[in-house]
Design a protein that fits this description.
Blueprint lengths: L10 H19 L5 H19 L4 H8 L7 H8 L1 E5 L12 E8 L2 E8 L5 H6 L7 H16 L4 E7 L6 H5 L2 H12 L6 E10 H5 L6 E5 L3 E3 L3 H8 L6 H8 L3 H7 L4 E3 L10 H19 L4 H14 L10
Parallel strand pairs: 3-4, 4-5, 5-6, 5-7, 6-8
Antiparallel strand pairs: 1-2, 2-3
Length: 323
C-alpha cells in the first residue's frame, strides 16, 4: 500500500495515521486483538481532519490544489465517462500531451471531453510539461471543440494548470494568439460547455478552455489571474510573501462563488479529493449531471447570449463613492 503524502499543516493527522499503521502491523503479527484501539484512533483522525479542514487559509488550499496525489483529468474521465477515445494533434505542429481530449459518453450521451494532465512521475511530468500547455495544446483543444460543434456534442472541460507555458518556443509559435483565439471561439461555440476547475486554474492557461455556460469548481481548488508566488514576486519582489498574496487574490472557491465567477462548488471528501478519488468522482458526476441538465435544452441563441454576457461581466465593479 502506497504511503500517503501529508502536507505541512497536516502533521498532527500524519502522526495519528502513523500510530494507526503501527497498531495494524502489531495486530497482524500477534494474537492480541487491538481493533478497538485502532477504531478509536481512526475516529480521532477523522475528527482531527474535519477540524483542520474547516479552518483552511487560501495558501493551505493552494497546497491541496497542487497535491501530488490529487486526481487529474484522466482519473475523472475513467470514472465518470464511458467509451472514451482520445484524439491527438492540432493539425499544425504537434500533439501537446499537457492537454488530453477525445470523444466519450456521459450518462449515455455522446460528448467531447478534454482537460489538462500534469503527470504522476518525473518522466510523465516531463512529457506533459507539468500541465503547462504550449500553443499546439490550445489549438488541439480548439480543434476538438469545433468537431464537437459540427456534430452537436456538448463539451466538458477540466482545468488544472499553473498557467500556459512561458518558454520562448511557445511564444514563437503564438502562445497569446492561441489563448485569445480559444476564448473568442468558445464564446461563440454553438453547443453547451461545462467547465470544472479540478486543481489549479492559472491565468490565461486556464481561461483558454474555461469559457463555459456552467463553471464548477472543486472545494479545494484555486482559480486566479496569477499564482500566489508570481503575485508576491511582483508586489513584494520575493516569493516568500506567497501566503499574503494568496489571501489578497481571492483564489478560493467560496470567494469566487460570491463574486459570481463560478456557478457551483463541488464538495470534496474529508481531507481532499486525493483521499478518496472514487467518492470525489461520484460527487463530481452528480454535479456535472445537474449542470448539463440546466443548459442542455436552452436555445442556441439564448445560450450564446448568456455565455457572452457572463464573459463580459468578469472584472465589472460598481463605484460606491458618494457624489
Amino acid at each position: 500500500m502506497a504511503k500517503k503524502i501529508f502536507l505541512d499543516f497536516e502533521t498532527p493527522i500524519a502522526e495519528l495515521e502513523n500510530k494507526i499503521e503501527e497498531l495494524r502491523y502489531v495486530q497482524t503479527e500477534s494474537a492480541v486483538d487491538i481493533s478497538a484501539a485502532i477504531n478509536q484512533l481512526t475516529k480521532q483522525s477523522q475528527q482531527l481532519t474535519k477540524d483542520i479542514y474547516s479552518h483552511l487559509t487560501p495558501w493551505q488550499i493552494t497546497k491541496i490544489a497542487r497535491h501530488a496525489e490529487r486526481p487529474y483529468t484522466l482519473d475523472y474521465v475513467s470514472n465518470i465517462f464511458t467509451h472514451f477515445t482520445e484524439l491527438h494533434g492540432d493539425r499544425h505542429f504537434a500533439d501537446d500531451l499537457s492537454i488530453i481530449g477525445g470523444l466519450a459518453r456521459f450518462n449515455g450521451t455522446p460528448c467531447m471531453v478534454m482537460g489538462h494532465q500534469k503527470g504522476r512521475d518525473t518522466r510523465e511530468r516531463g512529457l506533459r510539461n507539468f500541465g503547462m500547455s504550449k500553443p499546439e495544446g490550445y489549438r488541439k483543444a480548439l480543434r476538438l471543440m469545433k468537431t464537437a460543434e459540427k456534430f452537436k456534442l456538448p463539451v466538458f472541460t477540466f482545468v488544472d494548470t499553473p498557467g500556459a507555458y512561458p518558454g520562448i518556443d511557445a511564444e514563437e509559435r503564438g502562445q497569446s494568439e492561441a489563448i485569445g483565439r480559444n476564448i473568442f471561439e468558445m464564446a461563440q461555440l454553438e453547443v453547451p460547455i461545462i467547465v470544472t476547475i479540478i486543481g489549479e486554474g492559472g491565468s490565461g492557461g486556464a481561461l483558454a478552455i474555461s469559457v463555459g455556460d456552467q463553471v464548477l469548481m472543486l472545494q479545494y481548488s484555486i482559480y486566479s489571474v496569477i499564482s500566489p508566488e508570481g503575485c508576491a514576486s511582483i508586489l513584494w519582489k520575493t516569493a516568500e510573501k506567497s501566503q499574503e498574496a494568496a489571501d489578497a487574490l481571492g483564489i478560493t472557491a467560496i470567494r469566487l462563488k460570491a463574486l459570481g465567477v463560478i456557478d457551483k462548488i463541488v464538495n470534496e471528501p474529508i481531507g481532499g479529493a486525493h483521499r478518496d478519488p472514487k467518492q470525489m468522482a461520484a460527487f463530481l458526476k452528480r454535479a456535472l449531471s445537474d449542470a448539463y441538465r440546466q443548459v442542455s435544452d436552452i436555445p442556441v441563441t439564448e445560450l450564446l447570449d448568456k455565455r457572452y454576457n457572463r464573459l463580459q461581466s468578469y472584472g465589472q465593479f460598481t463605484d460606491s463613492k458618494s457624489a
